[in-house]
Amino acid sequence: MNFIDRERPIGIFDSGIGGLTVVKRLAATLPNENLIYFGDTARVPYGSKSNSTVIEYALQDAKFLTTKNVKAIVVACNTASSVAISVLKDKYEIPIIGMIEPGTEFALKTTRNKKIGIIGTRTTTDNKAYSKALKKADKNINVFEKACPLFVPLAEEGWTKHKATYKIAEEYLAELREQNIDTLILGCTHYPILAEVIQEVIGKNVKLIDSGIAAAELVRTEIERIGLLNNSNSLGNREFYVTDIPKKFKEIAELFLSSPVKEVRKVELEDILR
Amino acid sequence: MNFIDRERPIGIFDSGIGGLTVVKRLAATLPNENLIYFGDTARVPYGSKSNSTVIEYALQDAKFLTTKNVKAIVVACNTASSVAISVLKDKYEIPIIGMIEPGTEFALKTTRNKKIGIIGTRTTTDNKAYSKALKKADKNINVFEKACPLFVPLAEEGWTKHKATYKIAEEYLAELREQNIDTLILGCTHYPILAEVIQEVIGKNVKLIDSGIAAAELVRTEIERIGLLNNSNSLGNREFYVTDIPKKFKEIAELFLSSPVKEVRKVELEDILR
Question: Which of A25, A112, A259, B26 has the maximum number of C-beta atoms within 10 A of its C-beta?
Answer without folding.
Answer: B26
